[in-house]
Amino acid sequence: MSAQQQLYTIALIFCVSLSLSLSNPEDLAALLAFKATSDPSNSLSSWLNSSDPCSSTWLGVTCDPTTHRVTGLFLEDLNLAGTTQPLSQLAHLRHLSLKRNLLFSSSSPLNLSSWPHLKHLYLSHNRFAGVFPDGISQLHRLRRLHLSHNSFSGEIPLSELTRLRALVNSPTRI
User: Fold this and answer.
1) 3-class SS at 99?
2) Cβ–Cβ under 8 Å, residues 139 and 116
């Protein structure tokens, strides 16, 4: 193999490995939008536009190693304040924990149908209010749901959540 062919092969391997390590651009945009609107304390300072959320340097972010899609967000006790609306673009989320922050519903009610793969949802100790989130009945894989210390109203369709093993909703108005 000539030196030129070797150089070409090395460059090709580098480009392929670089492209495989980068997360989905939609996930990146959603995370950065959430940071911009909900992180007044700069708790998410490791979330940089120039880095890859799946590189393990982003606080609280986990990704599927094969698809490089964001599958988990663990953002607890970070003084986050704002809406979760940008996170609705993370269609591959399986675990979402936003416990003990200052997050709230935007002008439109919280809609959970964007996360059909969700297994664990922890929203306790925030400022969510209003009618119980739309789309909960579409979360057929949901196993854990923690909603305490919020002000939701309405009923949880428990009969439709057949895999639900744990529900924590007290004290909250449901």
Assistant:
1) coil
2) yes
Rounded Cα distance between 136 and 169, Å, is 14
DSSP state of 141: T
- Residue stretches of the chain with pLDDT short of 70: 1-21, 107-109, 170-174
Q: What is the pLDDT at residue 129?
A: 87
Residue 4: both structure tokens together: 């030129």
Q: CA-CA distance, 135 to 154, in Å (whole number)?
A: 13
Chain segment 86-109, per-residue pLDDT in tens: 999 999 999 999 999 999 987 666
Structure tokens at 74: 């663990």
